[in-house]
Amino acid sequence: KIFREIAERFKPDDLSPPLLAHVGDFLMEKGEADRAGALYEKLRTDFLKSDYLDFAFCGLGEIAFRKKDYETALSLFTDAADKYGALKLRDAYVGRAKTLMELGQYDEAKKLFEQIASIREWRGDTTAFAMYSLGEIEARQNRPNEAIAYFRRVFISYQKYVNWVAKSYLRTAENFDKQGKRQDAIDNLREMLKNEKLQKLPETQQAAQLLQQWGAA
Prior knowledge:
The protein is mainly α. The protein is 75% helix and 0% strand. The longest helix has 17 residues, at 162-178.
């Protein structure tokens, strides 16, 4: 409520670097990227020595990423990680890695995701995302067996992070089917549908539709 009140009552010129950073992140979480971008830009332009500068670079990088302006996103995330990374170092690394993947720079993306997954302090949702992304990198290079190994690792070892679990089940099935192993794909999706924690996620609906399409519902 406080962040919302600040966002509504004050202009960017009225805010300190910590407020520009945190209110910007708040607005991003609420899907108000344009308003967040104005705060990040103010922080980047007017507070070049602030400890919160990496919020601006990470935030602007994420906005560029969502617009599919990957070259700009990569530059911003790289600056956040290499020049200003402190408070948002994890976000900077993750942003750079996912942008490299979208640019098709798979070797660099893979090395960075492996590094992200190995950092103990970042264990959790970030690790699950890194493992999922390693599977995605393999899948995009037509290496389904390697992709499946990563995706299965997600839904076996990171069950708590249901969004990545659901996506990994679905991608596993798709990669089995790509190899002509439809029964394995069907068995995988049936296992997915038994998981009560996944029932409300859109991937579960997609899984049910695939089973119906394959005559296995």
